Fold each of these.
Amino acid sequence: MGVILTVLNARFRADLPYTWLDTSHLLAINPCKALSSINDASVREYEEHCYRDMSLSLASACVLQPHVYELTAQMYLLMWRRRESQALVMQ
């Protein structure tokens, strides 16, 4: 448990509040401030790398830092490929 907290703390201090726990669980720690990664340019970057590049597999579709934009791009891609509705549950 100590290693996990150390990683989460380091990412939080580096203004990287998102961390993948596995392929379907994204942990977000509220930074309680505006982040530079929340903007239109970031949206376009994640869209380009995680959704539009169809040559990559879903497992390795995105090489950027974990982000909620990555999650939404992957969900949309799955919805489009499988023709199935997707749901996002936030707790």
Note: The chain has one domain: 2-82.
Amino acid sequence: MALIVQKYGGTSVGSAERIKAVARRIAATADQGHRVVAVVSAMGDTTDELIALARQITDEPSERELDLLLSTGEIVSCTLMAMALRALGRDAIALTGFQAGIRTNATFSKALITRVEPERILRELERGRIVIVAGFQGITEDLDITTLGRGGSDTTAVAVAIGIQADRCEIYTDVDGIFTADPRVVPEARKLRSISYEEMLELAKLGARVMHPRAVELAGVYHMPVVVRSSFNENPGTIIQDEDAMENRKKVRGIAHDTDVARITIVDVPDRPGIAAALFQPLGDAAINVDVIVQNVSHHGVTDLSFTVSRNDLRKALRTIEPIARELGATEVTYDADLAKVSIVGAGIQTTPGYAGRMFKTLADQNINIISITTSEIRITCLIKESEVERAVRALHAAFALEDENAPDLAPRTVGQV
């Protein structure tokens, strides 16, 4: 008998009928003798609808009150799920993040889980109950409700699995698993049977929205096996684990893309020690994640400094950075919100010749201009125009032969116009 945490996303619980279908799946797992904790997201587009409602009241709602408002979506889902299970004759109980012991810091809208106090969940499991937990939310030491940011229910599920020492965490979504690219963009994309935590983390950070990066990182730190699979069929999913021995022929495991990108450029900032710290420390204090930092070569004691943020953070980032830039003597602050990132991801691509060259030539053959490049040990990322990103993804997927797990990914290939 295993202790299993299952997470169901908003699409999976998007209607009463889908909630009933998920309840039947949860009940079937329990009927196999397993103890089950299910974490649920808000129904369908509930979170977006609540945000839109708040902005009908004010353009800049208080983050504390907005978190309290948004937390209601998951509470609706978890209570309805418990009702559906009880209607099937199963003993189930719904718990809010607070009741489930999800403790967070006080960074509203992007709270970090500080600890999980699992006693209530474990007591309910000992009573033979199926436990339904509201995802995406937690509570501070001052008893304020917080939310964990987009995709936060994934993080809730992994954190709960770690806290109760579950055997595995299952993430149920609207796709069959982790693919070599977004199948909506690349119909030939292939489902992976397994992938390492490190590779999945890079894919998630770079735009693969099947699982949230924080959840992947947490699973990797605590070595929690995670299975990603569809809630609409019984197909086997993709397992995320310490080592990926199932498909080790290719170094490139996937192509990721992200259109949630805005670039801020600080023009003619003085080039002297301490400037970068003066600019980026306040962004960190404001919980704004910065990526793809590029500093141009200094001329006459000044330089241009560019970095990317998510589009949702653009307005907040500009409010934070503009007064600092003026104080430092920069000429101006500009931004571009029509960009995207495209990346190749795979362990070892940076230590093996040929991968960067193949990527850059493929984009050049498609007449796609590279605005900037960043790398790590397991990924190469190019910043390009958003209008060109889908064409870039399809071309790169073909160039590295990702549709065929047996084909070498650096074999000579001719990629036509995509």
Note: The chain has a mean pLDDT of 91.
Amino acid sequence: MNENQNRKRWIWFVGGVVTGIALSVFLPAAPTYAVATQGVDNFALATGPVDNNIEGIYFLDGLTGDLKGAVINLANGQFTTYYQTNVLKDLQVDGAKQPKFLMVTGLAAIRHGPSQAQPGLSVIYVMEVNSGVLAAYGVPWNGGRVNVTTAQYNPFILLNKTPMRNVAVRPQ
């Protein structure tokens, strides 16, 4: 290999490194969020972010209509922030009529108000399949909670509910 070819390879190598560094400095990094949702029988489990560096876990019991959530504390690795509401009450569903639910989480940067408890980044969507009514729940979040190790219990915030189907379906 002659000296001219060796010099060209080094120029290409250095040019590639400089270009890579320049791109990493000037192009903004886009955060990625991965959520998971799983359901079995009358239970649904989902995850979703509450802040940029932490997510919550959400559990829906289809028999009782209880929607519960928890956020793990970054300081001690324990669940210290808890949430709860009853979707049967919010969706005006009779629990004796065997309701069927779907639950997923979504990402929404809802505008902050003046209080310390701001909306978290997750929205929990719960749909009762027989009635076709969809509810969206917000997760109140105080960023200072990641440093507090005592337990705190909060209700989910019903953001909105709307019918997604015009005709109710009776369970078989």
Note: The mean pLDDT is 83.
Amino acid sequence: MDYVIATTTAHLREPNGTALLVTVGERWAANDPVVKRHPGAFAAPPSDDIRRSVAPVEAATAAPGEKRRTK
């Protein structure tokens, strides 16, 4: 399941007028209606939060339409 993390503690106003408390650090389903209505209050989890058995490998060539940085 994809998820996002709340970046702030706030009462988010819902369309029916109620306020929903969101606390910084809470994990929310990425497809939750609250997340979709208030995208600025959430962010993708940091990549170091994901457990891996091997380190991610960087692509050696640019994808179509992508420019590679040169040093």
Note: Helices lie at 33-37.
